[in-house]
Amino acid sequence: QPQTIHLRRATPFCSSWPERVSEDGQRSTTPQTHRSENVDDLIPNNIKHKFGSKIVNELLTQEEIEKFWAEKDVEENVVPSAEVEEKPQKPAIDPLDTYESLSFPLRHNLFPGAPTKWKSLARDSYTQEVHHRFQLDMDHWHGRRTDELGQWVEKNIIHERMKKALGELRKGKNAS
To answer: pLDDT value at position 7?
Structure first.
């Protein structure tokens, strides 16, 4: 069905859509989208370049193109642009204002409400029982050195301390 398109000037009170006149003389100002039934026009050049034109043409069939345009028509017909109401936008929240409004009461302890006593959990949680509950897990050393050099250093330190303690004991026996 051939349609003639008359373009009219956009004014603040009328839409800028092209005016379509059908064969029976009825005029409509619905948006006319450029429909391309060709795969080459539907896919952007950068995607064709990345994946190759041949692969894109193989993957995108003619039925998929028709299905795409049918869904697009349904979406356009669901909500006409004339019936869409503009909702007033909320002003953007400035994060600096939020920071300042929270930082002053925090610094001066001015938050309203009943005062509460703060109790630290350090004395309750970190007792000698922590060391008794500790179980060595060879899979999770959490950054401790487990190689042979680290073990040798540890054994060497213990050996040096034992030598020093034995030397002091011998000096004590010889002096008495």
So the answer is: 42
Half-sphere exposure for 16 (CA within 13 Å, toward CB): 3
- Mean pLDDT on 38-54: 74
Q: What is the rounded distance in angstroms from the CA atom of residue 49 to the CA atom of residue 36?
A: 19
Q: Is pTM beyond 0.85 here?
A: no
Closest CA to 35 of 10, 9, 72: 72
Residue 4's beta-bridge partner residues? 21
Instruction: Give me 47's structure tokens.
Output: 């995607």
Residues 1 and 23: beta-carbon distance below 8 Å: yes
**134 φ/ψ sector (left φ>0, alpha ψ -120 to 50, else beta):** beta
* pLDDT score of 87: 78
What's the sign of the alpha-carbon dihedral 60, 62, 64, 65? positive
CA distances from 175 to 26, 63, 167, 172 (A): 125, 105, 12, 5
Q: What type of residue sits at position 153?
A: V
Residue of 48, 16, 45 lying closest to 32 (CA atoms): 16
